[in-house]
Design a protein that fits this description.
Blueprint lengths: L8 E2 L4 E9 L5 H15 L5 E10 L6 E9 L2 H14 L1 E3 L2 E2 L6 E16 L8 E8 L6 H17 L4 E7 L4 E8 L7 H13 L15 E14 L30
């Protein structure tokens, strides 16, 4: 893979959008991949979107497919418009708004402000992610989070992570940390996937660095393979991003690399 135009270092993003949900059993993994390949051409060609990761895994207890999205945007206005578009306008089945589709189960979505975001390794090496959400006490945490961001960033780099984002949502009194890591190589793709997810999931949480006065309490923690990564054509020079940076353990997960 050859992805150029996204340099290492700080990411100039002011806002983020995240979603997490399960997929009803009647939608197979191959059906889900087919849908996202068609639908992302509309969903991801939006003003201000800088990048998107699509993490996916099976629930260890229920067997449900767990998926969602992690997006960065250049401005708050553009992430608000994306939230409006997907909730109020976007339909792939006539009369059914995108987030109201009956096969989306337990949808959890948020827009965030960005205290800091940084790429430590090339995007072509990003293969698994971890998303943690915390509630906090008090008012707007912007100043405290921007002050602690250098310590969070440096700790992420020291742990060998590929990227880290520190996000906050004052109105909901939530903080989020998104981290990305490389694939652990193994001749068996299933063993590789399991080892890669286990490694990022068991790392010490960067949430340990959040200011004590926020009384942060973790409410969500999920690690998964990144089966799709989408980058705007205008941001990519000399190469293409990968749609499946993690070698998938199921043939149905394999899709062609795409630009948006």
């Amino acid at each position: 893979m050859d992805i150029r135009g996204y340099e290492l270092g700080p990411i100039a993003a002011d806002a983020a959008f995240t979603s997490d949900f399960a997929v009803a059993p009647e939608v197979s993994m191959s059906d889900l991949v087919d849908k996202q390949e068609i639908e992302r051409r509309v969903m991801d060609d939006r003003t201000g979107m800088l990048m998107k990761y699509m993490p996916t895994r099976y629930d260890a207890v229920t067997g449900e497919v767990l998926t969602g999205g992690r997006y960065l945007f250049d401005t708050w206005a553009n992430v608000e418009e994306y939230r409006r578009f997907t909730a109020e306008e976007l339909e792939f089945e006539p009369g059914v708004k995108f987030w109201s589709r009956p096969f989306f189960l337990g949808v959890d979505r948020h827009i965030w402000r960005v205290a800091g975001a940084h790429n430590f390794t090339p995007l072509a090496e990003h293969a698994v992610d971890r998303f943690e959400r915390f509630t906090f006490e008090g008012g707007n945490p912007r100043a405290m989070l921007e002050e602690v961001w250098p310590a969070v960033r440096d700790s992420a780099r020291a742990e060998g992570l590929g990227a880290a984002w520190l996000l906050y949502q004052p109105e909901e009194r939530q903080i989020a940390i998104h981290t990305v890591a490389s694939r652990i190589a193994d001749d068996d793709p299933v063993d590789s996937a399991e080892a890669s997810i286990r490694a990022i999931a068991t790392m010490p949480s960067l949430g340990n660095l959040l200011p004590a006065q926020l009384r942060a309490r973790k409410v969500f923690d999920r690690s998964a393979m990144i089966i799709s990564m989408w980058l705007p054509k205008s941001r990519v020079a000399g190469g293409i991003p990968t749609a499946n940076p993690m070698t998938p353990p199921l043939p149905a997960w394999t899709v062609e690399p795409q630009l948006v």
